[in-house]
Design goal:
heterodimer; A: 872 residues; alpha+beta; six-stranded mixed β-sheet; 48 strands; 31% strand; B: 108 residues; mainly beta; 1 helix; 8% helix
Chain lengths: 872, 108
């Protein structure tokens, strides 16, 4: 027994409330108010984990969020992949396991605690309820309106807070980051986890200071502990962390900590003080303590716990004393992670050998108390001692030593920011709270610089680890993003469709029959459309009504071709370009009346296109009399295609004359379909005779059912987006965003025919004659036929000229769409290839898993190049 | 025109002060679409297309109240402090430099 619970004492624990928990499968008990760390010490657990790289035993080193050693996974009653044992409050049924260095995600969805996000507006936010924070909050409350005090620990507030007129102080609450304009994000632990979004007029940081360790050989052994932490375990938790104590100190606070342990029954074996005397030394000596002025600790021994401490005198004297606890008091560093995260700078304060705020930072921020350096003890600047550099640990969590820092400096790195990135010191869960100043001090010393030359590396939010689940709050699962479904959706579900996400929409990808693979289902759906009929739920098409006397002229400026000349009742396909001349969307414009167009967009592009319309109308052409309204969800669209489409629509019941003469390609007619009022459009995305039936959304399901009922005897198959992709690719129709990537002009796509350069200006027109857009060696859309007809080239496959694949190999292009085609009886692809149109008829090489697969370059239209099937 | 020093509270000229998350950024303001792009040289067109100012200090910017009235407006914002110095309607003239803060050369 070396560590134990004291019979009395412990300001933060409630001895009337025992708590059961388990650590590494061993059932243990503690008290309400304990942390996992204090309860482990009370149970005399020396080794809390192994270091991640060297596997060295490690114990509890601190009593707070600066802990670099004792990490655990929490698996019940909630899950947390990795967190410091010093920050986990003990609750009944808590299950923790040692987790050195790196956390792991639970293999299963796990129960996180319920999370709330709350918003607060206050005049003053005070972070930290120690003496300075409490005083600042009380003072602020006398002058300002709403004053919120938050404290990381589960502490009862000071009694004088009760009548000070503050908002209810929030305990167990950690500030994660300060942002512009006094926006502060807080994380409150508890049965309900809360992320607070606080907007404060003024923020006061009273975040205190962290005790700094010292680097000496084997300073990582369990039983080596920050002096102030040992004192906290005695006074706050009633736990004595060791019986025979050695203190290694640079300042008087070490003496105070040692005294607290002595008062609790420990034996103080010796004090090694880097300073040469002083009042604390005199008092300790008067009490009979063996104080070695100018001595240091030069090493420790022991297996899984310190059993002896090596002392080294100023003249090289060596002595070994038996001890089970070594207190380290290297000085105090203001806790400035939050201050630095918002741009506050540091200056070195020689008296306390620490970096303090230099007065910069946002005007709404103040730093008070120990965080500002106030009241910190005078201290001799000490970072490390003579001895084996490779055993002097600077960053316990990364197993990085003085030797590693020296290696980085020897490689020419001078800034602590570079040393950090070379050694990973400070990239830890505690963000280098115990290692940062030590590393800066050692780096400065190695470079022959003064201690003030540079301070610790910067910190950035979150200042303390926070579970992603807490940040996500309720924005998870089905609430992550809106799910949009069409009026026909329930039918697809019943039919067993496999869905895919297109933007926020759920679209049927294919409809497998029992036993069918996806490839088989898609081939069947494609065959049905090419030989009989197919039906697609196209309701997700973006639809925008563009209305007003200037609607036609406006669309002329937004699309590459002329829309203003469309007769009422006709339809025109158009490309939308960016100002840089690159294709950003496509769709058709239907003229419903002189002053009224219905424009369709890609499913994913609808919001972007409406944004674009509104932007140009508001910012450049405010005089145009045009109104744009999104009607995507007002219309359901049932697309019927295939050689039997005409018969099928007639069988479903319509008053429209469906003959080519009365209803030619690229026109629309109003009438009724299956009794519902409809716009029917002769457009085709498959090359087959097609009718797109637009009906008010409430009629969508009815019309779908009627068409399916009428078509089933004719061999109709509903088809999904996968078959649609194959069918359109067989015709060489591009999908914007699949075959294009924002770098394709209409000409690159072989669609120069759709650019009307005679009609006046349109968005992107000037860019089409920029030197770069008329380069002859641009990538152009072509078709590919692999020599292995069974091989579907992966999309993204690179295309090269020859079979010699030894680098460097010039890349000529890449596959953009690739499928097995039922109509062709083989695989095919679309690709963007440098000078592709000139290369038609030649053979290139596709690189598939490092293998050279020859491919013939062809025209991108594979099925019905004459367009004879379009009219049925 | 209302002068402000807000960072995360943006004063929409139509809706008043609203949280920054409701807004969308739209780049430098007062870069007008050329009246006749076809008459521009390649260099002049490229200048319009690609080149924008990037000052440290007050900058005239376009913003849009995307989750509100969906109107575009202009703002003068200090790129060093992120403080909005003023916002104004799209059809209003940009404020005189003396109305906001001193501007570095070449801004706006």
């Amino acid at each position: 027994m070396t560590a134990r619970r004291l019979p009395t004492g412990g300001a933060w624990i409630d001895r009337s409330r025992p708590v059961s928990f388990s650590f590494d499968g061993v059932p243990l008990t503690g008290f309400a108010g304990d942390t996992v760390a204090s309860a482990l010490l009370a149970n005399d657990v020396d080794v809390v984990g192994r270091s991640p790289i060297e596997g060295r035993p490690r114990g509890v080193f601190s009593a707070g969020i600066e802990e670099p050693n004792a990490f655990v996974e929490v698996s019940a009653p909630w899950f947390e992949p990795i967190t410091a044992a010093t920050t986990v409050d003990l609750v009944d049924g808590l299950v923790v396991e040692s987790r050195p260095g790196v956390g792991r995600l639970s293999p299963e969805p796990h129960g996180t605690r319920p999370v709330a996000h709350r918003h607060r507006h206050v005049e003053v936010l005070v972070v930290g309820a120690g003496p300075a924070g409490t005083a600042a909050a009380i003072q602020a409350a006398a002058h300002a309106g709403r004053v919120l005090l938050v404290e990381r620990r589960q502490l009862p507030g000071a009694p004088e807070l009760a009548d000070a007129g503050l908002l209810e102080p929030q305990i167990g609450t950690t500030a994660l980051g300060l942002y512009d304009d006094g926006y502060v994000v807080l994380h409150q632990r508890g049965q309900l986890e809360t992320i607070w979004h606080v907007r404060a007029e003024r923020v006061i940081l009273a975040t205190g200071a962290y005790e700094r360790p010292l680097a000496f050989p084997d300073n990582d052994r369990p039983g080596v502990m920050l002096a102030s932490a040992a004192r906290t375990y005695v006074e706050a938790f009633g736990v004595l962390p060791g019986e025979r104590v050695v203190l290694f100190t640079t300042n008087h606070t070490g003496y105070e900590a040692a005294s607290a342990l002595v008062a609790a029954g420990a034996e103080l074996v010796a004090i090694a003080d880097t300073a040469r005397g002083g009042s604390a030394t005199d008092a300790a000596r008067a009490g009979g303590t063996d104080v070695r002025s100018g001595w240091v600790v030069a090493g420790t021994s022991g297996e899984e716990r310190v059993t002896a401490v090596n002392l080294l005198g100023p003249a090289g004297e060596q002595e070994v004393v038996e001890a089970d606890l070594l207190l380290v008091a290297g000085g105090w560093d203001p806790a400035l992670q939050l201050y630095r995260g918002i741009g506050g700078g540091l200056r070195y304060d020689e008296g306390i050998a620490a970096f303090v705020p230099d007065g910069t930072g946002p005007p709404w921020l103040d730093v008070v108390g120990a965080a500002a350096g106030d009241g910190l003890p005078a201290c001799t600047p000490s970072w490390d001692v003579p001895g084996d550099d490779a055993r002097k640990y600077v960053e316990l969590q990364r197993d990085q030593t003085v030797a590693d820092v020296a290696k980085a400096v020897a490689r020419g790195l001078r800034s602590v920011e570079h040393v950090k990135r070379a050694t990973y010191i400070g990239t830890t869960i505690d963000q280098g709270r115990t290692s940062g100043v030590l590393t800066a001090g050692i780096t400065n010393r190695l470079l022959g610089w003064q201690p003030d030359a540079q301070g610790p590396s910067n910190a950035r939010p979150p200042a303390f680890p926070v579970p992603f689940a807490a940040l996500a709050g309720l924005d998870g699962g089905p609430l992550l993003d809106p799910i949009r479904t069409t009026p026909i959706h329930p039918w697809h579900v019943t039919a067993g469709a496999v869905f895919e996400d297109v933007g926020q929409w759920k679209r049927p990808r294919f409809y497998p029959r029992s036993g069918e693979t996806m490839d088989e289902a898609v081939a069947r759906e494609c065959r049905a459309l090419r030989t009989a009929a197919g039906v697609l739920d196209a309701s997700t098409l973006g639809k925008i009504e563009v209305v007003g006397p200037d609607a036609g002229g406006f669309l002329d400026r937004m699309y590459t071709n002329r829309m203003s000349s469309l007769p009422v009742g006709t339809i025109r396909y158009g490309l939308m370009l960016g100002l840089d001349g690159m294709v950003v969307d496509d769709g058709v414009a239907m003229r419903l009346a002189d002053d009224r167009f219905l424009v369709t967009t890609t499913t994913g592009g609808a919001a972007m296109v409406l944004d674009r319309f509104e932007e140009w109308l508001q910012t450049e052409w405010p005089g145009m009399r045009v109104y744009c309204t999104s009607v995507t969800e007002q219309w359901a669209v049932v697309a019927v295609g295939g050689p039997l489409a005409r018969d099928l629509l007639a069988a479903a019941g319509t008053d429209l004359d469906l003959t080519n003469e009365a209803f030619p390609f690229m026109t629309l007619r109003r009438g009724s379909v299956a009794g519902a009022p409809a716009h029917v459009c002769r457009v085709s995305f498959t090359g087959e005779l097609s009718f797109e039936v637009h009906v008010p959304a409430t009629f969508g399901r009815h019309v779908w059912d009627a068409i399916v009922a009428a078509g089933t005897p004719l061999g109709l198959a509903p088809y999904g987006t996968e078959a649609m992709h194959v069918l359109r690719a067989e015709k060489g129709f591009v999908i914007v965003g699949q075959d294009t990537d924002g770098t394709a002009t209409p000409d690159d796509l072989g669609m120069g025919w759709i650019v009307n350069t005679g009609k006046g200006d349109f968005i992107g027109k000037r860019s089409l004659v920029r030197p770069d857009t008329v380069r002859p060696d641009r990538k152009q859309l072509v078709g590919l036929l692999p020599h292995e007809p069974g091989l579907v080239l992966p999309e993204g496959t690179q295309l090269v000229a020859g079979t010699d694949l030894a680098p460097p190999v010039p890349m000529l292009g890449h596959v953009t769409s690739s499928y097995a085609s039922a109509a062709l009886g083989r695989s095919f692809a679309l690709a963007m290839v440098r000078r592709g149109r000139d290369l038609r008829g030649s053979t290139l090489v596709a690189v598939v898993d490092g293998r050279a697969v020859p491919v013939d370059v062809t025209d991108p239209v594979f099925v019905d190049p004459e367009g004879e099937r379009r009219d049925g | 025109m209302e002068e402000t020093r807000d960072v995360l509270l943006i004063r929409c000229p139509w809706c008043g002060p609203r949280d920054e998350i409701e807004f969308r950024y739209g780049g430098q303001a007062h870069v007008t679409y050329p009246a006749d792009p076809e008459t521009l040289s390649d260099e002049a067109w490229a200048d319009y297309l690609f080149l924008r100012d990037n000052p440290r200090g007050p900058f005239h910017e376009r913003w849009m109240h995307a989750a509100g009235c969906r109107r575009w407006f202009n703002a003068v914002r200090d790129t060093a402090t992120h403080a909005f110095l003023t916002t104004y309607r799209y059809d209003e003239e940009p404020p005189e430099p003396s109305d906001v803060a001193p501007r570095p050369e070449g801004v706006g």
